[in-house]
């Protein structure tokens, strides 16, 4: 497939996802999406094509606070890890998408690791 006309972000996302598929070993994927106002994360079982657990700054208990900072990303990472462990998932592969592993994405990953997810 041609990458002509794709943005650098889209190319980085595709390159990252294909590398993850090659080394995932059947583990679920922790996918992160970051927008200007919010951050979203979900654990996806690609074999079945379903979401196992998800968390974001749009949830009712945290909606009043800002979603575009490191503190919010840390809270989302912790809540996602707890939801994934409740669903019986402890090992995942981290899919940063096209985002750099820096700032809010890194804070989410660190919080998820500290809350018990292994990746």
Descriptive report:
The protein has 119 residues and is an alpha+beta fold. It has a single domain, classed as Nucleotidyltransferase, domain 5 (2-Layer Sandwich), CATH 3.30.420. The chain is built from 3 helices and 4 strands, in the order H-E-E-E-H-E-H. Strands 3-2-1-4 form a 4-stranded mixed β-sheet. Helix 2 runs parallel beside helix 3 (104-114). The protein is globular, with a radius of gyration of 14 Å. The mean pLDDT is 94. InterPro entries: Ribosomal_L18 (IPR057268), Ribosomal_uL18_bac-type (IPR004389), Ribosomal_uL18_bac/plant/anim (IPR005484). One of its GO terms (cellular component) is cytosolic large ribosomal subunit. This is one of the proteins that bind and probably mediate the attachment of the 5S RNA into the large ribosomal subunit, where it forms part of the central protuberance. GO terms for molecular function: 5S rRNA binding; structural constituent of ribosome. Keywords: Ribonucleoprotein, Ribosomal protein, RNA-binding, rRNA-binding.
